[in-house]
Design goal:
By secondary structure, the protein is mainly alpha-helical. The chain has one domain. It has 12 helices and 4 strands, in the order αααααβββααααβααα. A two-stranded antiparallel sheet has the order 1-4. The chain has a two-stranded antiparallel sheet with strand order 2-3. Helix 1 packs across helix 11, helix 3 runs antiparallel to helix 9 and helix 10 packs across helix 12. The model has no long low-confidence stretch (mean pLDDT 89).
């Protein structure tokens, strides 16, 4: 039971990083971005390939995962700079399918549908971080560091400027603020931490393939963000524990394994619908979900 709880808490912390970074992108720009799972996958594949196939140590590969995710997000931002609303959301959603298609078909790099097995455990200062308690400790440190940085960013003058852009981009532009530059900076920072989470995920699971980053995962992350509330990092933490802990109860109920997956997705969908209907701001949200 202890090993099981350690694994659950490790995955919850990884997804909290993803949710908090997505909350930064959505809650502080007002643009619905649905490409975060692709960035998560880019981070995972980058770290896995560099450490397993190239022999790069974990720490450089870890930060390269964040950097490549940021560059991918920057490219997507440049491509979608003239898009708003539903058009922007659909293009970012299509970015997920593009990344999954590349992972499936670039066999020489990603091994396609066979996936990448045997991803090495992180080695930090000569110490191998094995699964269980040590990996949970590593994930906790990265999560706290990521959340602290995001908290300080959103509470700074820059964060207040982002809120002004979200609430009235026309007014901010009239005051001489470069709205586009602020938004792409926010997206790039968000993508960096998503890439770091992807690296942790790859080295924790030790196996990734294209199915690890399908559309169903963006539903999970969006449900966490919306449940906790937009523009609230505390809400993302709370939403992460609520959304990811509830389905684990299904493991202890008399349900066939084939029904667990679909039932879990149904629970996510029901929670998302109820939040949108009865509490549009989420539990701790600061802005309404348009």
């Amino acid at each position: 039971m202890t090993a099981y709880l350690v694994q659950v808490f490790t995955l919850i912390l990884i997804y909290i990083i993803v949710a908090a970074s997505l909350n930064l992108a959505i809650g502080f720009t007002g643009l619905l971005s649905l490409g975060h799972v692709a960035l998560f996958g880019i981070g995972a594949y980058t770290s896995a390939i560099l450490t397993k196939d190239v022999g790069v140590p974990f720490m450089p590969a870890f930060f390269m995962a964040g950097l490549l995710s940021s560059l991918s997000r920057l490219f997507l931002t440049v491509v979608t700079q003239k898009l708003r609303g539903d058009y922007f959301a659909f293009v970012t959603l299509g970015f997920n399918f593009l990344v999954v298609a590349l992972a499936q078909n670039w066999i020489s790099l990603t091994r396609g549908s066979l996936g990448i097995p045997g991803i090495p455990r992180p080695v930090i200062f000569g110490l191998t971080i094995k699964s269980g308690g040590p990996f949970l400790l590593l994930t906790t440190v990265v999560t706290i560091g990521s959340l602290f940085f995001l908290y300080r960013l959103t509470r700074s003058r820059y964060g207040r400027l982002l809120e002004a852009v979200r609430d009235d981009s026309v007014g901010a532009s009239a005051l001489g603020k470069d709205v586009y530059r602020l938004k792409y900076q926010c997206f790039v920072v968000s993508a960096f931490f998503t890439g770091l989470a992807g690296s942790l995920f790859a080295h924790f699971i030790q196996f990734i393939d294209p199915t690890s980053f399908y559309l169903s995962d963006i539903i999970i992350v969006l449900t966490i963000v919306i449940t906790g509330g937009l523009a609230s990092l505390t809400g993302s933490i709370l939403g992460g524990f609520i959304i990811l802990a509830i389905p684990e109860i299904l493991r202890f109920l008399p349900i066939t394994p084939e029904a667990v997956g679909p039932l879990r997705q149904m629970i996510y969908s029901v929670i998302l619908i109820l939040i949108l209907l009865f509490r549009p701001r989420g539990i701790l949200g600061k802005v309404d979900i348009d």
